[in-house]
Amino acid sequence: MSEPTRPETSPLRTTDWLFLVYLVIPFLQPFFSPGDPLGEWLIACGFVGAFLPIFVGCVLRPERSRLWAVLTTVLAVAGTPFNTGLSILFVYAAAFAAAVETRRDALRWLAGLTLVLGVLGVVSVVPLPWRLWGLLPSLLFIWIIGIIQIEGSEKGREAAELRMRNARVEYLATVSERERIARDLHDLLGHSLTAVVVRAQLVQQLVAVDTDRARDEAGEIEHIARDALAEVRSTLGGWRQASLDDELDSARGTLASVGVELTVHQDLDRPLVGSVEHALALALREAVTNVARHARARTCHISADVEHGQLRLVVADDGRGGFAREGNGLSGIRERVTALGGTVERTGTAGTTIAISVPVEVAL
Prior knowledge:
Single alpha-helices involved in coiled-coils or other helix-helix interfaces, 3 domains, alpha+beta, 11 helices, Heat Shock Protein 90, 10% strand
């Protein structure tokens, strides 16, 4: 049997200490039992007192809830034949087990606890009808509390796994972006610095023989250096977090300047994961730039919504379309989106349409 995923937080929150109120149930039998009240009071106090450290242990060490469930079951089996109110311990055992077991194993626990409690109901020395009044609520609540705990634990594990996946995707996207910028800087500075070194060596040689040409070469070095600095600043600007809303505002101004009418449909009711919004914003920037430069379009439509479990960003124009070879811009979009587990589709009939899809569990 494989080990189930352990919860990141305690299966019992601080407010769950309120569940100790159910421990008053074992003390009801001494009030109404016609038998020896002193002996029954001692039994109730002894077993409840023995259970309290187990409950505290489950709150402080939730990763050992399986052990606490076993110990609670042992106490319940020992005490229920003499005080059927102690059958409430079976409900606690069901909650402890369901907090850490897989659904299949947790249901086996519930079935096993129900079977054991049924057998104890037969051998109990508590007279009727007190016996049934103590046992029947516990038989019912083993399943009610157990199922609730199973559902809550599964949701908690799914949420933890989703957070881990999102963090992993965001980390990989960040690493990929840094590598891209590093490559850009290498290509940019490699050429510029080589030119600066060569011309600086030439200036050293010309200073003594041709001062006018040396002055011209020095000016050219300054020009190369300034251009390289401007390009470096532009490249480093890619590290800033891009916003989808800001890019939409920029798209309106860009397309309006070239006479393209823009319509926008945005239906996102939750904020996007940072890495996903950054990638989509850069993709939108590139797509709008292509519309402004190459499409010769009259209208452009941008939509961003959730459809069939996918976050979709679509940029469609009515320009000249075509199936020209993808340039660096569209290739960069595809790389970023693929790193997020998404896809990019391009069609070139009746204009050009760029459709980007990213799984909702990654994007939101």
